[in-house]
Amino acid sequence: MKKIAFIGAGSMAEAIISGLVTQQVIQPANIFVTNKANDDRFEYLEEQYGVTTTRSLQALLQDADLAVLAVKPKDILETMQSIKEYIREGMLFISVVAGVHTSSLEGIANKQFSIIRAMPNTSAAVGKSATALAANGHTEEPQLQTAITLFETVGTVAIVEETQLDAVTGLSGSGPAYIYYLVEALEKSAETIGLDSQTAKQLILQTLLGAADMLQKSPKTPAVLRKEVTSPGGTTEAGLKELQAHHVQEAFIACVQEATEQSKRMGEQISKELAKHVVPQ
Hints:
By secondary structure, the protein is α/β, with parallel strands linked by helices. 54% of the residues lie in helices and 13% in strands. The protein has an 8-stranded mixed beta sheet with strand order 3-2-1-4-5-6-7-8.
């Protein structure tokens, strides 16, 4: 990659920029960034990462191999209309804009071009994102490999069909919030049983890290690992019976399903709005 253009300069764009710079995938001076009006953000990114900032779309996209769309869904129409004249053959666009289909981006631009939709999560900020990528039909294999390299700087990468991105959103896109919710509950339980907050936090976090490491390194299924911890008549069994009585597993399943359905609903609404502005090809 000779040049990368970031359209949008928020937290997700910064996480990716940080990964690229830290892992020396590209020289910071060859990372170009724009946003709508936040000069303080420009100054921060320049000082922190050594990137080039500009509000000239021509300077931003000229000779860029790759452009990352990192704007809010409500701004995608204006963004695509403003940059479509600079889209050229061979450029790859990666969109982290939730709910916006590749066909909508092509329709607004009135061009067929290479697009990969990415669904990272907020753990990208600490280099631990679980990111799913879905490429459109105009994307070539080397371009997909470029996208994989890009997102591996902030975590792990899975390749899916675009139709699966709603499920990815419900599972791993929103997933960090489910884990934080669980930790909230564990912290509250620690308080009720007499543990101070600092000790509880240390124990909870290490327990999560250890369990995640076991799941990653062991060939055993989660169910087998759970059963190995659960002695008949023991403390773990007693606790798990309470979770089962409150249908916690079913609640988590329903949670992910509803988040997935909401992602579908939002995507359909965005697609309908954008379709009003699509030029027939």
